[in-house]
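yo

u said u wanted the structure for the complex thing, so here. seqs first:
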Amino acid sequence: MDIASLIGVLLGGGLLFAAILTAEGSSLGAFVDYPSMMVVIGGAFSALLISFPLKKFLALFGVAKVVFINKTPDIPKLTKMLVSLAETARRDGLLALEERISEIDDDFIVVGIQMAVDGSPPETIEELLRTEMEAVASRHQNGKSLLDQLGRFAPAFGMIGTLMGLIIMLGNMDDPSSIGSGMAVALITTLYGAIFSNLFCLPFAEKLGFLNQQELLSMEIVIRGISSIQAGDNPRIVEQKLNTFIPPNLRTTADENEAA
Amino acid sequence: MDIASLIGVLLGGGLLFAAILTAEGSSLGAFVDYPSMMVVIGGAFSALLISFPLKKFLALFGVAKVVFINKTPDIPKLTKMLVSLAETARRDGLLALEERISEIDDDFIVVGIQMAVDGSPPETIEELLRTEMEAVASRHQNGKSLLDQLGRFAPAFGMIGTLMGLIIMLGNMDDPSSIGSGMAVALITTLYGAIFSNLFCLPFAEKLGFLNQQELLSMEIVIRGISSIQAGDNPRIVEQKLNTFIPPNLRTTADENEAA
Amino acid sequence: MDIASLIGVLLGGGLLFAAILTAEGSSLGAFVDYPSMMVVIGGAFSALLISFPLKKFLALFGVAKVVFINKTPDIPKLTKMLVSLAETARRDGLLALEERISEIDDDFIVVGIQMAVDGSPPETIEELLRTEMEAVASRHQNGKSLLDQLGRFAPAFGMIGTLMGLIIMLGNMDDPSSIGSGMAVALITTLYGAIFSNLFCLPFAEKLGFLNQQELLSMEIVIRGISSIQAGDNPRIVEQKLNTFIPPNLRTTADENEAA
Amino acid sequence: MDIASLIGVLLGGGLLFAAILTAEGSSLGAFVDYPSMMVVIGGAFSALLISFPLKKFLALFGVAKVVFINKTPDIPKLTKMLVSLAETARRDGLLALEERISEIDDDFIVVGIQMAVDGSPPETIEELLRTEMEAVASRHQNGKSLLDQLGRFAPAFGMIGTLMGLIIMLGNMDDPSSIGSGMAVALITTLYGAIFSNLFCLPFAEKLGFLNQQELLSMEIVIRGISSIQAGDNPRIVEQKLNTFIPPNLRTTADENEAA
Amino acid sequence: MDIASLIGVLLGGGLLFAAILTAEGSSLGAFVDYPSMMVVIGGAFSALLISFPLKKFLALFGVAKVVFINKTPDIPKLTKMLVSLAETARRDGLLALEERISEIDDDFIVVGIQMAVDGSPPETIEELLRTEMEAVASRHQNGKSLLDQLGRFAPAFGMIGTLMGLIIMLGNMDDPSSIGSGMAVALITTLYGAIFSNLFCLPFAEKLGFLNQQELLSMEIVIRGISSIQAGDNPRIVEQKLNTFIPPNLRTTADENEAA
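structre next:
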C-alpha cells in the first residue's frame, strides 16, 4: 500500500472540490457535464486503443493499480541478506548456499544462486540475469508509456472539445445571454483534460518510472552481490561494494550485521 | 487484423460525432467545411511531400495500412521453435538442422540456420543478422517519422487556416452579426488539425513504434537463439535464456514443451 | 531534380492562395503587408546572422538549393559495383582493382580502393574513411541546423510582430471601427511566421536530414564493401552483407548481377 | 551559504512587489487570494505526492535547503592536496599515506587512500569509488527531479485554477460589472503558477544540477588522482593531469605548491 | 571581431525600430516602459542568479562578449602547420621539434609536442590532451547554458508581467476608455521577453555552441596530428588524415603546401 499516492489523489481532488464549493456564485453542477467527459476521457482512451495492441491496452488497469499497491524493494535488507549469503559461501563453500535457497523469497536471487551452486560460469549467470533485468525494464517502460500517452492525449481531446463547443456557440449567437454559458461549457473539456492529465496520468507515469528505477537498482545489487559471492570475495568487501548503493545514513556495517 | 486500432478509430470518431449531434443548437453541417479541409489536410501533405522524396512519401499509405493489418510476432511460439531446433542440433548435430529448414516460415531464421549449417563462423552470422536487424529498424523508423511529421504539420496548418479566417473576418466587420459565424469557420481548421493529428497521425505513429519494438525483440531472440544453438548449448539453457524475454506468466518449461 | 519537394511547395502555396481567393469577402491584398514581411523574414534572418559566422550563414542558400536539386544515392547500383569489384579482386588480386578505378565516379570509393591497392592496412583505411564520413555528417548537420533555427525564429518574430501590432492598435482605440483592421494587420505577422516555418524551413530541414541519412548509409556500405574486398571475401558473401542494407524487394542476387 | 541564490530570490521577489506597488490603480490586496494559492501550491504538491513515495517526497525540503546552504568543492585546493599526497607516496612509499589520512576531511578520499594503503588492486578501488560516484549522482538526480516536476505541475494547476475561475465567471454574467473582477481572480492562479515555477522550482532545480556537476567533477578528480598516486606517477605528472580540470587562470604549478 | 553577429543585432534591432516608427498611429514612446523592463530583464536575471553560483553568473558577461569578439580557428592553417611539424619529425627526428615549439602560439599544441619531445608514451599524451579538451567543452557548455536559461526565463517573466498588468487592468474597469491602454501596457512585458530571448539570448547561445564545436574540432585535429607525428607517419598520410576534417574545396595538397 503506497500511502503517499493515495494521499496525493485525495488531497488534490479535495482541494479542487473545496475551491469549487467555496467560490462565490459557483456550484458543483456547473462543473459536471457528461458529454464533455465522454469526449475527453473517451477520446483519450480511443487514441490509446489505436496506439497499442488490445492486450497491452488492457494492461493499463493493472499498471495503474501498481501506483497504489506496491512494495518498494528494501535495499538495506537485501544487502544484509547478500552479505549473509557471502559469509555462508566463504565459510562452507558455494554448495552450502543450496540449503539457504528456501529462505529467499525473491525469484531473481534464487535463479542466480541456483546457477552459482550448479557451477555455471560467472559470465553465463550475469548474462542471464542482465537479460531478465532488461526484460523487466522494457515491460515497465511499456506500462509507463501507456500513462504518458494518456497524459498527452487527454489535454488534446480537451482542446478538441473546447473547439467544438466554441464553434457551436459561435453559430448560435442570436441570443447574447447564452454566450457566457455556452463558453463555460466549452471550457469544461479543457479543464477535464488538464485535471485528468496532471492529477492522474502524468503523476502515475512518474511514479511508475520511479518504482522501475528502484527495482532495477535492487536487481543491479543482486547481480553484483552474486558475482562477488561466486568470486569468493571477503564478506566485508561484498558489504562495502553493496553499501555504495545505499545513502550513507542507512548503511549498516558488518558488525551490526553479525549482531543482528 | 488488429482489432484494437479499428475499435479505437471507430470509437473515437463515434464519440465526436455523437457529441456534435446531441449538443443543443448544433448541426453536423456546421462542422463540415471543404476549403478548411483542403487547407489542413492538403497543407500537411504538401509539407510532407517537401520533407521526403516521392518514393518515401508514397510509402506512407502502405505504412498506415500496417497499423490495422499486422501480426505481432508470437514470441512464446518462436522460443518453442528455437528450443526444438536446439534439441535437434544437440541430438543429431548442426547439419541435421538442414532438414528442418522447410518447416520455418520466417526468412530471418532461415538465413541464420542455413549459415550455421554451412559452417559460417558465429561472428559472421551475428554480424549479418544484426545488419539486417538494423536495416529493418531504420526502415520502420522512416515509416514512423512520416506519421510523426504529419502529426506535427496538421495542427500547424490548422493554425494557419484559423489565422487566415480571422484576418478575413476582421477585415469584414461592417456586419457585426456575421462575426460569430466567421469566427466559427476560422476555428474549424484548428479543430480539423487537432483531430487529424490526435486521432490518426500520432496514435498511428505510436503503434508503428510499438510494432517495430516487438519485431526487433523477436529478431533479438532469434539471434541469441541461433548463437546458442551453434555454440551447442544444452536446450534447457537455450530455453532459460530465451524465456527471459517473455513475461513470467507466459513462459513454458522444457517439459511442457516436450509434451506439446 | 527532386520533383516531390517542388510539387510540395507549389501545392502547399497553391492551396493557401486558392483558399484566400475563394473565401467570401476576402482579397489577396488583405494578406500582403510589406512591413510585416520585413519584421518576420528580416527578424528571423537577423537572429540567424547572430547565431552563425557569416560564411556559415551564406551557406544557407546553397543548402536550400540542395532540397530541390540533389541525387539520392542509388544503393542497389552501388552494391552491384562493389560486388563486381570484389569479383575482380578475388579473381585477379587486389592490384587488379587499379585498372578499374577509372570506372568509378565517386571520390569516396576511389580513395578507399586506391588505399587498398597501395597496401594500406585495413584499420588505416577504415579510420580514414570513417573520419571523412563523420566530417560529411557534421557539415550536413550544420546545414540542417541553419534551417531548423530559421524555422524556430520565424514564428517567434511573427509573434513579436503581432504583439507590436496589438500594442499600436490598443493605443489607438478612439476609432472603434479601425479595431478590426488593426487586429487583422497585427495577426498577419503570426501568419507569415507560421507559413514560412511550416511550408519552407521545417520541411526543408527534414529533407536535408533525410538526404544526409541516405548519404551516410551509402558511405557505410562503401566502407563495409571495401573492408570485405580487402579481406578477400567471397563475392557472394560481400553481396549478402551489402544486400542487408537494401529493402528485400529491391535486392538483386549474384546471378542477376552476373547476367546484367 | 550561497549568496547568489539568496540575492536572486530577494531581488526577483522585490522587483515583482515593487512593480505591483508602483503600478497605477494597483494594490497588493488584488494579488493575494488564498483559495487560489491552495489550488496552485496544494495541487502541485498533491501531484508530487502521487509521483514519489512519501520518503522521497519529504526529501524535497532538505533538497531545497541545499540550494542556499552548500559548499561548492574547492577544486584547486583539492588538486593541491592530491599532489601533496602524491609527493609523500613517491618519497616515502604508499604506506606513508596512512599517517596523512587524519588530515583529510573528505570521506570519499579517505576510503580511496585507505584501500590503496591496504594494497587493494587499482581496478577494485576504481570500481568501488565509481559505484559510490554513480550512487551520489543518482541521489542528486532524484532531488533535482522533484523540483523539476514541481516546476511542471505548478503552471498546470495554475491553468486549472484559471479555467475553473473562468467557468464560474461565465456562469454568472448577469452582472456585467463583475466580469472584470471575476476574470482578474481567475488569472491569479496562472500568475501564481508561473511565479512559483520560474522564481523557485526551475532555478532551484538548475542550481542542484550545477552543484551535482561540480561534486561529480571533484569526485572524478579524486579518482584520477588516487589512481595516479597508486601507479606511482611523478607528482608533476599528477599535477599536470589534475590541472586540466581547472580553468587555466586558476592553475597552480608544483613550485608555487611547494612554496605554499 | 565577428561581423555577422554585430550586423545581425543591428539589423534585427533596426527592423523593429523601423516597423515601430513607420506604423500608422504608432510612437516610440508607446513601446518604452521602464517598470516593464525591470520585471522582464530583472526577473530573468534574478532567476539566473538563483540558478548559478555568483562567480558563474558573473561569467555571463564575458561569455556574451565572446559572441562578438572571437577568432574561429583557421583549420586549413592548423593542418598545414601540423603537416610541416610531421615533416620535421620525419626528417630530423622527434627531438628536432623542440626548436620549432617557439613558432607555435597555441598552448594546446605546445603541451602536446613538448610531451612528445620528452618521450611521454602516446596514451599518456592523448589522455592528457583529451582531458583538457573535455574540460574546455564543459566550461563552454556552462557558458552556453547561462544564455539558454536566460532565453527561457525572459519570456516566462514577460508572461508574468502581462498577467500582472491584466489583473491590474481588470480590477479598474470603471473607466472603459482606459482598457485599451491598460492592455497595451500589459502586453509590453511579453514583447520585451520575446525580443530579449529571440534577438539576444537564444542566438547568442547558438553562436557559443557553434564556436565551441569549432574549437573542439581544432583540438581533435591537433590530437590526431600529434598522435600521427609521434607514430612517425609519413607527412602525406598525416595530411590525408587531417584533410578529412576540411571541406573538399578548402583542402590543400602536400605539394601546394611545400610550395607555400
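The two ends of chain A are 27 Å apart (CA to CA). Residues 1 and 69 of chain A are 4 Å apart (CA to CA).
cya
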